[in-house]
Amino acid sequence: MRMRSAIAALSAVLLSGAALAEPLGDPDAGRVVFDQCKGCHMVGQGSRDRIGPHLNGLFGRKAAAHEKYRYSKGMQRAATNGLEWHADTLDAYIENPRALVSGTRMSFRGLKDPQARADLLAYLRVYSDNPADIPEADPTARGTDHAVDPEILALVGDSEYGEYLSSECTTCHQASGAANGIPSITLWAQEDFVIAMHAYKDKVRPHPVMQMIAGRLNAEEIAALAAYFGALEP
């Protein structure tokens, strides 16, 4: 009964739409969407870690911050780069986990329906701090769609041009494939490379240096770099 009353209270706030231009999700519908997550995650009273961490108190929390759970190196790197879980970053992660966090262990391929994501986030928001304080406390707004255009993904990069452009990359990333505190991008799958770079370009990924570098590159240049590093033998 407590959970139902909490959802009912939150629904009333969400439907009011106070101070937010974007439509908000329906937590009752989100509870149904969460069925897709139950194989790995729990949420609510008595939740515990399973294959994935429990999702209580998720909003406003730093990535990889649940001390009792062993996170992937990719998620730990994202946390070091400043990733926090808010409506926009959660929306991006649920839409395409590997676009936001390379090397994530989450096997879920992504939820493409923006309304289903909004509903799911509204449901998860019930189990975070002070859900009645929406919109002031980390609102569950519908996130921006950061999917990469299929035409961009279909671009065939010129690896020789990518080699010419690569000098800025290799000032930090080692062409040898070594990862001494900085992740390797050698032999990275081209699609993963392109998705990651556009996520930095769109400021979905939080690393400020990578946002600056990606922001200076156009789609053809990103494709060229992906082709070069994707075939580079360490």
SS-derived structural category: mainly alpha
Q: Can you identify the CATH superfamily of the largest domain? A: Cytochrome c-like domain
Q: Tell how many strands the DSSP assignment holds.
A: 0
CATH class of the largest domain: Mainly Alpha
Percent strand: under 5%
CATH third-tier fold name of the largest domain: Cytochrome Bc1 Complex, Chain D, domain 2
The end-to-end span amounts to 58 Å
Instruction: Tally the helices.
Output: 11
Low-confidence runs:
5-23, 131-137, 140-145
CATH architecture of the largest domain: Orthogonal Bundle
Largest sheet: none
Indicate the percent of residues in helices: 40-55%
Task: Please characterize this protein's 3D structure.
- The chain has 234 residues and is mainly alpha-helical.
- The protein has two domains: 2-133, Cytochrome Bc1 Complex, Chain D, domain 2 (Orthogonal Bundle), CATH 1.10.760.10; 150-231, Cytochrome Bc1 Complex, Chain D, domain 2 (Orthogonal Bundle), CATH 1.10.760.10.
- It has eleven helices and no strands.
- The protein has helices spanning 2-16, 27-33, 73-80, 87-95, 97-100, 114-125, 150-153, 159-165, 190-201, 208-215, 219-231.
- The chain starts with a helix and ends with a helix.
Relevant terms:
mainly alpha, Cytochrome Bc1 Complex, Chain D, domain 2, 11 helices
